[in-house]
Amino acid sequence: MDKSYKQMTDFLVGMGVEQVPHTQKSYLAHLIAVFRSLEAQGYPEDVCRAGMFHSIYGTERFQGFTLPLERRHEVRALIGDRAERLAYLNCAMDRASLDRALDQAVEPYRITDRITGAEVPLSKHDFDDLCCVHLFDWLEQVPRSQVWDYRRAAYRRMAERLGGPARESYERVFAQEETVEAG
45-52 and 72-79 helices cross at what angle (nearest 10)? Predict the structure, then answer.
């Protein structure tokens, strides 16, 4: 378990995120579940921390809670520079630009920051870790949301790109769709 786990969850509780609904559970429960999923698969600490804060500033789809960007320094001090940058990028990215970047063969991978309008070049390492955070966020919630076809091809490409635990998790989660439809 991450040595800062309690400080991270205390920070989130201090902002009241446990009162915010998110896909038939609390926003806090979703954030913790994404963190634990990444951690259970053996991803590095900065990726797991980014997973816990993956939507802290709001995203293209989720605006149920948005920490003002002026408070990025607080999140950075709590989870580290790289984790906060990955979390910010997951919040700020234009998802269509991420989907287009999945088709690139070489770095830098370019995504668009929908808040600033700037193009953000990413190394393969950063792009893959962003894909990991983004994929595990969706895998955690899709069985509850039942929105199986939202950007399905893009999520599959992320899982295939990352391989290993990401691919296995994708297959396991999406196998539930057949169970739900058969039930």
Answer: 140
